[in-house]
């Protein structure tokens, strides 16, 4: 898997509310461009829609420290989803055979590794942003 080099920087901030404010501004821009369900288009999936439904639910299950760490990579993940054509690691979800999990690797402007996971429903052909997390 070849990581995609993003052109955006990781968000700065030492507390969750500080980072959350910046993420809300970025998310509002995406929300403004869509009418109903919030989505963005992906270059890798031939401009198909990637929905945010499960991302916020998944993030809410994490501790505030983990949320802050993951949300710092939000602008980089958006850049990766929109412009990356690099092949992800894809595998069938072991818990549900009707889903494929795609894991994309990316590098921030400061060359920091992070991953973006997208879930694809085979039956409906819909794709959902699942998770953003830093690399080890």
Shape label: globular
Measure the end-to-end span. Answer: 15 Å
Q: Enumerate how many helices there are, as a single number.
A: 4
**Assembly level:** single chain
Tell me the radius of gyration.
Answer: 14 Å
The count of strands amounts to 7
Q: What amount of the residues lies in strands?
A: 25-35%
H and E string? EHEEHHHEEEE
Low-confidence stretches: none
Q: Report on the biggest sheet.
A: 7 strands, mixed
Tell me the domain tally: 1
Q: Let me know the average pLDDT.
A: 94
Structural class: alpha/beta
Helix content: 25-40%
Task: Please characterize this protein's 3D structure.
- The chain is built from 4 helices and 7 strands.
- It has one domain (4-134).
- The two termini are 15 Å apart.
- Strands 1, 2, 3, 4, 5, 6 and 7 form a 7-stranded mixed sheet that branches.
- The relative contact order is 0.24.
- It has helices at residues 16-32, 53-60, 64-71, 74-83; strands at 4-5, 39-42, 48-51, 89-92, 99-107, 113-121, 127-134.
- Helix 1 crosses helix 3 (64-71).
- With 136 residues, the chain is an alpha/beta fold.
List the defining traits of the structure above.
136 residues; alpha/beta; 7-stranded mixed sheet; 29% strand; globular
SSE topology sketch:
Blueprint: E1 4-5, H1 16-32, E2 39-42, E3 48-51, H2 53-60, H3 64-71, H4 74-83, E4 89-92, E5 99-107, E6 113-121, E7 127-134
Parallel strand pairs: 1-5, 3-7
Antiparallel strand pairs: 2-3, 4-5, 5-6, 6-7
Give me a quick take on this structure.
By secondary structure, this protein is an alpha/beta fold. Helix content is 32%, strand content 29%.
């Amino acid at each position: 898997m070849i990581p995609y080099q993003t052109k955006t920087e990781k968000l700065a901030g030492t507390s969750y509310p500080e980072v959350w404010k910046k993420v809300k501004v970025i998310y509002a821009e995406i929300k403004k461009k869509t009418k109903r369900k919030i989505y963005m288009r992906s270059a890798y999936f031939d401009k198909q829609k990637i929905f945010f439904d499960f991302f916020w639910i998944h993030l809410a299950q994490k501790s505030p420290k983990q949320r802050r760490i993951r949300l710092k990579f939000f602008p980089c993940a958006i850049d990766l989803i929109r412009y990356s054509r690099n092949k992800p690691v894809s595998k069938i979800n072991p818990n549900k055979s009707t889903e494929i999990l795609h894991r994309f690797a990316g590098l921030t402007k400061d060359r920091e590794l992070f991953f973006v996971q997208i879930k694809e429903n085979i039956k409906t052909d819909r794709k959902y942003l699942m998770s953003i997390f830093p690399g080890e």
